[in-house]
Amino acid sequence: MSQLSLKGVSKYFGGLAAIQNLDFEVKEGEIRGLIGPNGAGKTTVFNVITGELSPNAGEILYAGRLLNGLKTHQVAKLGIVRTYQLVTLFSGYSALENILVGFHSESRFSLLDLILGGRRSRATDIAQLDKAMEILAFMGLSAFADAQAENLPHGLQRKLGVAIALAARAKVLLLDEPLTGMNPSEAQDMIETIRQIRKEYGTTIILVEHNLQAVMELCEKITVINFGQKIAEGEPGQIKRDEKVIEAYIGKNAHAT
Ligand SMILES: Nc1ncnc2c1ncn2[C@@H]1O[C@H](COP(=O)(O)OP(=O)(O)OP(=O)(O)O)[C@@H](O)[C@H]1O
Ligand SMILES: [Mg+2]
User: Fold this and answer.
1) Which residues are 84's β-sheet partners?
2) Is 39 in the pocket of ligand 1 (CB under 6 A)?
3) pTM to 2 decimals?
4) Is the CB–ligand 1 distance for residue 41 below 6 Å?
5) The domain made up of 1-79+171-257 is a member of CATH 3.30.360.10
6) 10-residue block means of pLDDT along the chain (257 residues)?
7) CA distance linking residue 181 with residue 178, whole number of Å
8) Which residues does 184 contact at the CB level (< 8 Å), separation at least 6?
9) Taking the domains of the chain in order of start, what are their residue ranges?
């Protein structure tokens, strides 16, 4: 049975169909690739899942429950958490403080109170600190706990973004281009981290990424969209050989040159 499904989902921006009649089903614990050329609608798929945008048509179901109409924080509370194409951290705060914010992703501002010496009991603080340190250790970021987020190298900032999503108890993790701007060794490290997250926490992961080699390496199944419509779905080996997929990518390149 699917854990997350989109049935006939469409999203229009004026006359432009960013997603059109999209059916998309993901099983629990799967690592699914969602790929397609620039502007294909990938980020829009994430936006309608998380409630940042409401679809013009179709249903979005999570564990049998309709997500349509829920607010972003309500969706996050159910365990669907995303990272952004651009890094979004509390840059003036330490890595550890950023993780603490993740625990309260549905109420970020009250957490800032907590960080700034707010009203929570000391016992809660300590339990949360332990848990936050555990997540940092899992992500290989222990040594940077006290480092200010904005001073971390790009690769580690992106890792911290994923760590924050874990702190928010993600059951479904939506990763939007997690490898962007990474050098090959940072990228390899992130690929390994994504694998470890699924292994350790059983998290369902949907991966949007232009690094197709990484997608092929990580995902058991890949969905390809172009101009908002699904053009192919299957195992990496199938997708690599799919005529429509090849055409979508080559056609796009031909356009660019
Ligand atoms: N808020 C918006 N208002 C108007 N048009 C939008 C908006 N968001 C996205 N679009 C358009 O919808 C289409 C799909 O955009 P989307 O960002 O989902 O693509 P994408 O597959 O994530 O692309 P990329 O790989 O470049 O990140 C594009 O044509 C884009 O210009
Ligand atoms: Mg995008």
Assistant:
1) none
2) yes
3) 0.89
4) yes
5) no
6) 95 97 97 97 97 97 96 91 78 89 59 52 70 92 94 91 86 93 91 92 95 96 97 97 92 54
7) 9
8) none
9) 1-79+171-257, 90-169
